[in-house]
Amino acid sequence: MAKAPDDGLLLVDKPAGMTSHDAVDRARRALRTKRIGHGGTLDPFATGLLVLLVGRATRLLPYLDGEPKAYDATIRFGAETDTDDLTGTVTTEAALPTHAAVEKAIEGLTGDIDQVPPAYSAKQVGGTRAYAAARRGQALALAAVPVRVARWEIRGWRDAECDVSVICGGGTYIRALARDLGRAAGSAAHLSALRRTASGRFSVRDAVTVDAISAAAVREPIEAIPDAARVEVDAAGRSRVARGMTLPAAADSGGVAAIVDESGELVAVAEADGELWQPRVVLVDG
Asked: Which residues contact 204 (CB under 8 A, 6 or more apart)?
């Protein structure tokens, strides 16, 4: 059986004021399917790219390459909040830093760094979500975790606000970067705006608005794994792979392969196992 019309990849530009969960629900209703997975959420106040996989393509989530992440952000200096963003309550106020101090602080927040997640985050300690504890006034002591910040770019200043672009690895909290930048510059700061512009090779420029989902064409599943090597099979090979059977692989094959049939349809994702391709995710019926 071939893929359903709505099996595949969908890029959505989430608006501010909507949770990622609500955006996914809108997609489910618009596409009349319950099977939608995502490649990472955004805070409600944030805008930008959500990478969604629809139907059978949800099986590709383990192979979705969503790094690095790219963001445009606005950081407001002079005040720190309990959420590290504009939705929180001010907890600390300080004089504004010099531009030179901010530029110097950015240097120390670039590369491989240890980052303490925001008190209002989905991190867990002993089975308790950090945001749940924080809402009860019992903020958890969160351990620092290693993250990678590849690059910052200051795009401009407006009074107490600084517009930046950040490229980073998954698991990096831009809110925490804003908080730590304020502290490192001898001031205080929080995130006042955030927009995800890219996730891996997926760009918000190619995304549709939430209101346009019902009219959008869902992309072919293979577009979800653009960096996987392609291995084409004939009808007999397609039948073998659809039943989870292995295929011969070159001795120097490695990593992950997208197994496609003669029409270019993605049949399965396979991993190298010696001189064999072992299907791990099959997207068609045998």
From this structure: 11, 13, 48, 49, 195, 196, 197, 198
